[in-house]
Amino acid sequence: METEVKIKKLRPDAKTPRYATEGSAAADLCYAGDGDIVIAPGETAMVPTGIAISPGRRDVAAFIYARSGIASKRGVAPANCVGVIDSDYRGEIKVALHNHSREPFTVAPGDRIAQMVIAPVIKAQFAECGELDETERAAGGFGSTGIK
Fold it and tell me: Among 35, 38, 100, 33, which Cα is nearest to 66's?
């Protein structure tokens, strides 16, 4: 499934998101800025991408995820875990990167900082009720099904 997403470059050094391989589900987002950003241990920095998007339809949204290499090897990932870019947002996409490690992390202009997935969105119609249907699991949660 493919859909056209319009990209507006807001900074001259902005890069169009791109898929690293043909099988990639997410397109890489890059830092667009004038100089390095150093994120201290335990700190969060807003990292601009220099782009705004328009998916052209209301039934999709963009979801911003960590790049697995930076997250697993360097301890740096989006502060909100998954960022949601609604279909009607036209401002600059910025990634709130949080440094979970004990070492400073430097982001240089052009670095790939996160990845973006364009995915369908199903709108719910919420209906209040007095009772919910019964299930085997019921209210069991937070490990109620065990480890093995």
Answer: 100
Q: How many domains is the chain built from?
A: 1
Residue pair 102/41 in contact (Cβ under 8 Å)? The answer is yes
Q: What is the CATH number of the domain that holds 28?
A: 2.70.40.10
136 has a pLDDT exceeding 90: no
**Is residue 113 in some structural domain?**
yes
Percent with pLDDT over 70 in the chain: 100
User: What's the confidence (pLDDT) of residue 61?
Assistant: 97
Structure tokens at 47: 């990292």
pTM (two decimals): 0.90
Residues 6+ apart with CB under 8 A from 105: 38, 39, 74, 75, 76, 97, 99
68 secondary structure, DSSP code? H
* Predicted pLDDT at 2: 87
Q: Which helix (H) or strand (E) holds 74?
A: helix 68-74
